[in-house]
Amino acid sequence: METSLHFVQKLENKLSLTPQVKQSLEILKYSSEELEHFIKEEANANPLIELKEHNREHLLEMARVPNSGAASFVKDEFFDPLLNVPQQEKSMETYLMEQLAVQRSITKREREIVLYLIRNLNDLGYLDCEIEETAERFCVSVEKCEELISLLQSFEPAGIGARSLRECLSLQVVRCGNAPKLTEILIQKHLEDLADGNFQLVANLYEVAKAEVEEAFSYIKQLNPRPLMEVQSGKQEYIVPDLIVEEFNGEFVIQINNANLPQISINAYYEELLLTEACVQTKTYLKTKLSDALLLMRGIEQRHETLYKVTESILQKQTAFLQKGNKALVPLRLKEIADVVGLHESTVSRTISNKYIRTPKGVFALKAFFIRGVKMQSGEVESPLFIKEKIKSIVEREDIKKPLSDQKIANFLLAEGIPIARRTVAKYREELCIPQSTKRAQKK
């Protein structure tokens, strides 16, 4: 067989990002604190960048995040940067991504899905996305998603990626392997009984000694219902809101919070030197650094413009929230905002990542305004709050002698045109603090 070398012309479309676009995308994903750190790093490496710090009295109020990971925030307090030096620590996302990086047996696509799951963990470490929606998003089967969720749940700390308290505790029991024999069934069926101290009732049900139930309960109490507590620092954290919404004359006004960001200007000495310097090498160096400085300034300007535009579109969709709070949130997806502002969905995702907004109702992550809805048989989409009210109403009307199981509640909802899975009913019921049917029967 003869071989030969020859040239072939080939025409193809290829997306190539310029340095300006790359830096703009990088800056876009930074929170205020991360951007402040990035600006100072750039200034240290570039003599043409001159920074002017804001006076301390111009620092805006901060909102403290409780260590419990609760969704609500306490009232604003003035943040003293001298008394609250941030601790250098590994973020939860980084910690899990390091574990993902060593998984050699999965494909690139599967890795992307696991990364998506990691980014949809809530502050407690629970998975906060619907498996059907994830499967549809990545064009894979629900079974494949379940498989990848199991992979995530194999990471440290034990219990990460659980979808409920019961699953979180069960994952830890399986990982440990030395739990008392009744532990698993008590977690799945009798957490409420254990919390109420009904040890004898459970013991009679399984024909075991009360001491066995108490032993299993003691073991369960040692488990961690909040997996991220093992990763997160015990110190108080503070949030610098990236945006502020205030009401003026009945209208809500959005402001970009740049009070903690240093003001950037070009050093006058080096700017003059650039005009007068005769040395070609020095002039080339100064031109490069001037270009970098201007690129940084434009990137920050674009970040603010995009952040404002995206936030404005979000609040236009969630206008009722500003008057009524969380209960008025409506279903909203990234694609809806992307279509409105004319950006790619991934750009919107970067924009809201790690960003917080201070509103008259408190401080919230921008991500909190995106809630999944349930598609009705009519084609309309209703919010989880609407479904919860339906579940609450069904439970209130049930026969006190025969409380409805989660599956029967799901069947009632389906009859009303609301297709919803049993496990979703169970999740919403627990969030409403409604006991399971066996427990309701005992109380009634």
Q: Can you put this structure into words, describing what you see?
A:
The chain has 444 residues and is of the alpha+beta class. The chain has three domains: 19-70 and 239-369, no CATH class; 165-230; 374-443, Homeodomain-like (Arc Repressor Mutant, subunit A). It has helices at 19-28, 32-45, 92-101, 108-118, 131-138, 142-153, 165-176, 183-189, 191-195, 199-206, 210-221, 268-276, 280-317, 319-324, 334-341, 345-352, 384-397, 406-415, 422-431, 437-443; strands at 49-52, 63-65, 237-239, 243-248, 251-256, 263-266, 356-359, 362-365, 374-375, 381-382. The strands form four sheets. The chain has a four-stranded mixed β-sheet, with helices on one face. A hairpin with a 2-residue loop joins strand 4 and strand 5 (251-256). It is elongated and about 95 Å long. Residues 56-89 have low confidence and may be disordered. Residues 85-270 form the RNA polymerase sigma factor 54 core-binding domain. This is RNA polymerase factor sigma-54. Residues 284-440 form the RNA polymerase sigma factor 54 DNA-binding domain. InterPro entries: RNA_pol_sigma_54 (IPR000394), RNA_pol_sigma_54_core-bd (IPR007046), RNA_pol_sigma_54_DNA-bd (IPR007634), RpoN_core-bd_sf (IPR038709).
List the helices and strands and how they pair.
Elements: H1 19-28, H2 32-45, E1 49-52, E2 63-65, H3 92-101, H4 108-118, H5 131-138, H6 142-153, H7 165-176, H8 183-189, H9 191-195, H10 199-206, H11 210-221, E3 237-239, E4 243-248, E5 251-256, E6 263-266, H12 268-276, H13 280-317, H14 319-324, H15 334-341, H16 345-352, E7 356-359, E8 362-365, E9 374-375, E10 381-382, H17 384-397, H18 406-415, H19 422-431, H20 437-443
Helix pairs in contact: 1-13, 3-4, 4-6, 5-6, 7-8, 10-11, 12-13, 13-15, 15-16, 18-19
Protein name: RNA polymerase factor sigma-54
Domain RNA polymerase sigma factor 54 core-binding: 85-270
InterPro entries: RNA_pol_sigma_54, RNA_pol_sigma_54_core-bd, RNA_pol_sigma_54_DNA-bd, RpoN_core-bd_sf
